[in-house]
Write a structure and sequence with these properties.
There is one protein chain. Helices cover 31% and strands 20% of the residues. It is built from eight helices and 13 strands. The strands form two sheets. Strands 1-2-3-4-5-6-7 form a seven-stranded mixed β-sheet, with no helix packed on it. The protein has a six-stranded mixed β-sheet with strand order 8-9-10-11-12-13. The longest helix is centred in the C-terminal third of the chain and has 26 residues. The radius of gyration is 20 Å and the shape is globular.
Length: 308
């Protein structure tokens, strides 16, 4: 039954001392990077109970002290932090992340809608532990015998995606900047900037492009698969740019003609069928494309492709 037992597939060692635990609940990946003196845990799941199960699984790997990194502030990636908290434990997240209680009602509703009332009830009462340390652009962590880099490359899935590079292993822990087995989530996204940010991430902050990419959800993949997603996101960004230009100059046909009198008005008034026609041929489902297009038309994302 969801939320009542460990629903993980077990640890997959994707490189020496880098292990990923994939969970049936929300298909979320948690990653552990082992060093000689300490370890790094990346993302802690959606509730305290789930975090405790993950912490127990980490302890079966190592007794070393841990540091926690949160790739972004969506609840399924950090609500489990309390299971890892303790004296001297560092929890790292990007400085722009909103690690607070504001999204709890939405988290509970999402879990209920996902068919997991146990996790929903747990999320409603989970104590929240925000990052103790905020990262602006780049932080190097020494784990003993190896180091990891926590890097912000720019806006993409959110405005604060914090990625983890393990240079000696050729691994990039990408959070939801890369998503496999599902369409990328666009609700808080910056569609015009996402492919640029992902390109930076795949180039590697340490000058070594990663070979292996751990997405926030879904299968661990090679860097070439993540680059294919970058190309798909670029196609989406290009189409959104074209659509915005057509609407702004009154060149759209049918019911869309003349509707874009301003950024917000354009986003609110362009009918779904116009957006769906613009999405034709793109490798994402229409709902994903509509959300991305509306964010671009609203003027929220993408004004600065070089951001970050």
């Amino acid at each position: 039954m969801p939320g009542t037992e460990d629903d993980a597939t077990g640890w997959l060692e994707v490189a020496a001392g880098v292990l990923v635990r994939r969970h049936a609940g929300l298909d979320l990946n948690a990653t552990v990077v082992l060093g000689d003196d300490s370890c790094l845990v990346v993302d802690t799941r959606a509730t305290l109970a789930q975090g405790r199960r993950l912490a127990d699984a980490v302890r079966r790997l190592t007794a070393a002290p841990w540091t926690v990194a949160c790739t972004h502030d969506h609840f399924d990636h950090w609500y489990g932090n309390a299971a890892f908290a303790g004296p001297g434990v560092r929890v790292l997240g990007h400085e722009a992340g909103r690690f607070d209680d504001a999204g709890r009602a939405d988290a509970v509703a999402y879990l209920r809608g996902d068919g997991d009332p146990v996790a929903a009830a747990q999320a409603a009462s989970t104590p929240l532990v925000p990052p103790t340390d905020r990262v602006a652009a780049r932080t190097r962590l020494e784990l003993g015998g190896r180091h990891v880099l926590l890097v912000y490359h720019g806006r993409g899935h959110t405005d604060h995606d914090l990625l983890v590079e393990v240079p000696d292993a050729g691994v990039l822990v990408a959070g939801d900047l890369v998503e496999v087995c599902a369409d990328p989530a666009m609700d808080d996204a910056y569609p015009l900037e996402w492919p640029v940010t992902l390109a930076r991430a795949l180039a590697g902050a340490a000058g070594r492009p990663p070979r292996t990419v751990v997405p926030g959800h879904g299968d661990v993949v090679g860097a070439e698969v993540a680059d294919d997603q970058r190309a798909d996101l670029q196609r989406l960004a290009d189409r959104a740019t074209e659509l915005a230009a057509e609407l702004a100059t009154g060149l759209a046909t049918g019911r869309a003609a003349g509707l874009a009198t301003g950024p917000v008005a354009g986003a609110a008034t362009v009918p779904d069928d116009v957006l769906d026609r613009a999405a034709a041929g793109l490798p994402f489902d229409p709902a994903t494309c509509r959300t991305a297009f509306r964010r671009v038309l609203a003027g929220t994302p993408g004004a600065d492709p070089g951001h970050g």
